[in-house]
Amino acid sequence: MPRYQRQGVHRWKQDEFVFDNDMLANEGLVHLHVNGKRLTSLLASHEDLVELGVGHVTAEYQSFDPALIDVEVEYGKDEAKVDMHGPFDVENWTTRDRVVTTSCGACEHDALPAMLATSNVVNAVHPVRHMHSIEHAFQAMKSSQDGFRMTGGLHAAGLLYEGDAVRVMEDIGRHNAVDKIIGAHVLSNEQHEPHVLLLSGRCGWDIVAKASRFNIPIIASIGAASSLAATAARASNITLVSFLRDGKAVIIGPLKDRIKAKD
User: Fold this and answer.
1) Do 195 and 160 contact (CB within 8 A), yes or no?
2) Minimal CA–CA distance to 20: which of 12, 8, 29?
3) What is the pLDDT of residue 112?
4) Do 3 and 64 meet the contact criterion of CB atoms below 8 Å apart?
5) What is the pairing mode between strands 239-245 and 218-221?
6) Angle at the Cα of 189 from the Cα atoms of 188 and 190, rounded to 5 degrees
7) What is the mean pLDDT, run by run of 10 residues, along the chain of 263 residues?
8) Is 203 a catalytic residue?
9) In this structure, which long-range contacts are made by residues 225-229, counting pairs with CB atoms below 8 Å and at least 24 apart in sequence?
10) Which residue segments constitute the domains of the chain, with CATH numbers given?
11) Backbone Cα Rg of the chain
12) Is the distance from CB of 74 to CB of 31 less than 8 angstroms?
């Protein structure tokens, strides 16, 4: 499946409908398998699927050494299959027989305490970040969002490292973009731990849970944080920076020894 497809549309301009073409981001099913056993199915963009599979398993189940696994990707017309082979304890993992749209595991819980209990307490210690460095990282991420510029329909997630290095991935789903950037980090054998998870949209509980399992101390989003994201962040010792734009932001969670207002 190509990354984009051109479709006929009508545009409403100056009180008239005008026929035109528009570029749309493709979306299709991705079936994740571990050692031949189906783990789950996602709706996702059909590129960077190795990173998606590795990141999903890392963020949802466990961390692992990428040198010990082998990943195979099979592409169909509208579907793709990612099969990861390695020393996984799949028998203790929760599998999902339906297509999930958040990939966060919330559908397995019927009460908030059970959901919050799946998050870890972040204990990462990094040099204090300045708000301007996080804002500059957003600009670097924005300049890397080729899919969004082409279609306006792809989310981005980025990781900010020491020295202001930024790595970025895109997907039709916010949670998939986060899985892909985590997978890209794991597969890169990057020696430095990420300081900040960057989001092109809003931040919900599902993304806080993923960040906590990956020990990321700061999440910065261009959009809002939900109330449950805020609750989970406080419980996980994560700092949320939301509505970050034009030299302004809303901060939830710890500031001391983590972020400063200016250089």
Assistant:
1) yes
2) 8
3) 60
4) no
5) parallel
6) 85
7) 87 93 93 92 94 93 77 92 88 69 46 64 89 95 93 95 94 96 92 94 94 94 95 94 94 93 86
8) no
9) 225/250, 225/252, 226/202, 228/112, 228/115, 228/204, 229/203, 229/204, 229/205
10) 28-110 (3.10.20.10), 129-260 (3.40.140.10)
11) 19
12) no
Tokens of 72: 């195979």
pTM: 0.90
Handedness of CA 181, 182, 184, 188 (dihedral sign): positive
Q: What are phi and psi of 79, to 5 degrees?
A: -135, 160
Burial (Cβ within 10 Å: 0-12, 13-18, ≥19) of residue 118:
middle
Paired tokens of 101: 């749209």
**The two structure tokens encoding residue 188:** 């890169």
**Burial environment of residue 4 by CB neighbours within 10 A (0 to 12, 13 to 18, 19 or more):** middle
Element (H, E) at 7: strand 4-13
141 exposed, middle or buried (CB, 10 Å; 0-12, 13-18, 19+)? buried
Residue 196 · residue 239 · CB < 8 Å: no
Identify the pLDDT of residue 103. Answer: 43
Q: How far is CA 148 from the centre of its chain?
A: 15
The amino acid occupying position 24 is: L
What is the number of other CB atoms lying within 10 angstroms of the CB of residue 87? 9
Helix (H, G, I), strand (E, B) or coil at 224: coil
The catalytic position among 52, 80, 104, 177 is: 104
